[in-house]
Request: fold
Amino acid sequence: MQISKSIAGSYPKNPKLAKAQAWYSAGKIGKEKYEKYLKTYTMKVFSLAKEINASYTTDGLLRWDDIVDVTFSFVKGATKGPLIRFYDNNFYYRRPIITSKLTKDDNSLIEAMGFSRDVMKEAGVSSKLKGVFLGLFPTTD
Reply:
């Protein structure tokens, strides 16, 4: 029996990347500078995938706060609410606020996965890149 190795889920975010994301969200740095930070730390995730010869990998989910934020970044009809504490531990998530019928935002999805795919190719990783979504994903039908 052969077992495939894969890397799934999110990775701890480097404080420098978290700061760059905050600056980008506040308009203090441009997209190009933010993506330079993102590329640096995403490359580290892909280096790990290459080291273990993973069949599948995520991009480390470094650009998002949590799994809810990942999914709702690719959906129209919802906004990101405040951070909520998950039970009595140190895990927080953004509560989605539904404002209208949910539909996919294909452009955001293609841009995010395209960026990760380009970084992965540059890192020389042969793994298949997988997206991660919470729950059901709306269709555009």
Summary: Strands lie at 6-7, 56-57, 75-85, 92-104, 128-129.
